[in-house]
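thread: overnight batch results

M.L. [08:02]
morning all. the overnight job finished for the chain we discussed friday. pasting input first so we're all looking at the same thing
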Amino acid sequence: MNQFVFTLKDNNQKAFNSFFWFLFFLHLTAASVVIINAKEQQQKTITIGIITLFLFLTAVVFLFKSKFRFYNYQVLMFVLMVIFWPVQSAWLPAIVVAAVIVFAFVVLKTKSAAVFSEQAVAVKRSLFTKEYQWSELENVVLKDNWLSIDLKNNHLIQVEVAAESTAADETAFNGFCRQQLLNP
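M.L. [08:03]
and the structure it wrote out:
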C-alpha cells in the first residue's frame, strides 16, 4: 500500500507571537483595573510592583534581544501572568489564563501534515483533520516543495512542504496521484 506523508510549513509561531502580545496587553489592562479598584494600599503596591516587573522585563528583552530567546521570555511572562491572579486572591482568572496558555502551546507544537493514501487524502491541521476522497479532487501536484491540491468544487489548497518532511520523489508522488485520480 503506497502512502506519502508530508509535514507542512505552518505560520503557527507568528500567530502564537501575536497571541502572546494580545494576552500580555490584556493582562496589563486587567492589572490596571485591579489597581484602580483596589481598596487596600498593600494590594495596590503589589500590583504596581508586578506591572513594573512586566514592563522592566519587556524592556530588557527588547534592548538585549540578540542575547535572549524570545520563547524563554514568553514562558516567563506566562508564568508571571498565572501567578499574578492568586496573589490578588482571584483563582478563576488564574485557571482561565493557565488553560488558554496550555492550549496555545499545544496548538503551537502540533505539526500540520498531508497524508496521501490509496483511499483518501487527509490534511491534518492543529485543531482539525479534513479528509478528501480522490473522487473530490481534480488534480494534485508536488513541485519545488509546494503542494497543490485542486478540488472539483473550485477550491485550491496550496501549502509549502517543510524541510524536515521526508524527501519524496516528486515524479513518483505525482505519478501516484495521477493514478489515483484516474481510478477513484
